[in-house]
Amino acid sequence: MREKKRLAFFERYLTVWVFLCMIAGIGLGKLAPGLTASLSKMEFGRGSQVNVPIAVLIWLMIFPMMLKIDFGSLGGIARRPRGLFVTLFVNWLVKPFSMALLAWIFMQHFFARWIDPETAKNYTAGLIILAAAPCTAMVFVWSYLTDGDPAYTLVQVAVNDLIMLVAFAPIVMFLCGVANVVVPSKVLITSVIVFIVIPLVAGYVTRTTLLRVRGKDWFAQSFLPKFNPVTMVALLVTLLLIFAFQADNLTKRWFAVVLIAVPIIIQVYFNSSLTYLLMRLFKVPHNVASPGALIGASNFFELAVAVAITLFGPGSGAALACVVGVLVEVPVMLSVCKACNSSRDWFEAGGVEQVI
């Protein structure tokens, strides 16, 4: 009988922490509007829209994630490529486009009576940015909960990160253009360099150097754990500031949070189901298929928030849409984990052997 696995305390109650940050942030925005305005105006150069406090906090979130990426694991792809191909197909050829379609249908049509056209475009842009950034950090949690193959999960994450370097900006620009949302190309490319390229290179150099100098055991058991509280605090403070910047929008348009959640939830279940079924069709083992389904559904919301803030500002509807992604992701992804675990026998009955 398999041991029942649980999330760590912070990840288990992430939705609760996000709600608390929402309350605290709105309180800060309402009770200290002068302080909030001052923080919001702190930018790296006039008109850059790169907020200094949030940029620093997001770096503190992203850098530890990049430290975990072992690009040496890419060498094993040729021996078992089917699961990776399915994951990449859904992540890059289905997920951004399906979200763009859902955002267009819901934000600009179904919910048009409650959302003005310009705000709807802003929400659409945020949802596109959210879907175009495949999950990096929480995937390892989802893989653990579904007894996933950790080495293969690492390969999937590493390849996604490499593709993200060249594909993220063009996909966002194309889909936002189709949705009639103007995205400054220079600002988007700058955000990719600042929030993907630099932390990825910094993480790679740091990881390689420390592994060579101090060894794998020290790096994994002593160095990486030190970043866990840093990442947690940075995430919560980032959300608090974003909700403070969004205080007026949230109090006046709280119903928008509910509306934004609808296409996100549909997208998660659609993409996870599609990936899972394709994995079974191509006889991919369950311990690769389950993490693949979860990678195909979850998002790199830290990067999405950073890019949305850089492009549209911390008080924008696009930033709010990405934050709603954080709000709904944990409970929805936990339900996907449960579905994968409960359907293990059905999946393996398709003639797929667990050992690969």
Give your account of this protein's structure.
With 356 residues, the protein is mainly α. The protein contains 17 helices and no strands. It has helices at 9-12, 14-31, 33-40, 52-67, 82-110, 117-131, 138-145, 150-178, 185-214, 216-223, 227-245, 247-252, 254-281, 286-295, 301-312, 317-342, 344-348. The chain starts with 8 loop residues before the first helix and ends in an 8-residue tail after the last helix. The mean pLDDT is 81.
Could you give the count of β-strands? 0
Name the average pLDDT.
81
**Percentage of β-strand residues:** under 5%
Number of helices: 17
Tell me about the largest β-sheet: none
Order of helices and strands: HHHHHHHHHHHHHHHHH
First-last Cα distance: 21 Å
Structural class: mainly alpha
State the share of residues found in helices, binned by percent.
Answer: over 70%
Using only C-alpha atoms, the radius of gyration works out to: 20 Å
Low-confidence stretches: none
Overall geometric form: globular
What kind of oligomer do you see?
A: single chain
Could you name the key traits of this structure?
mainly alpha; 0% strand; 356 residues; globular
Write the layout of secondary structure elements.
Layout: H1 9-12, H2 14-31, H3 33-40, H4 52-67, H5 82-110, H6 117-131, H7 138-145, H8 150-178, H9 185-214, H10 216-223, H11 227-245, H12 247-252, H13 254-281, H14 286-295, H15 301-312, H16 317-342, H17 344-348
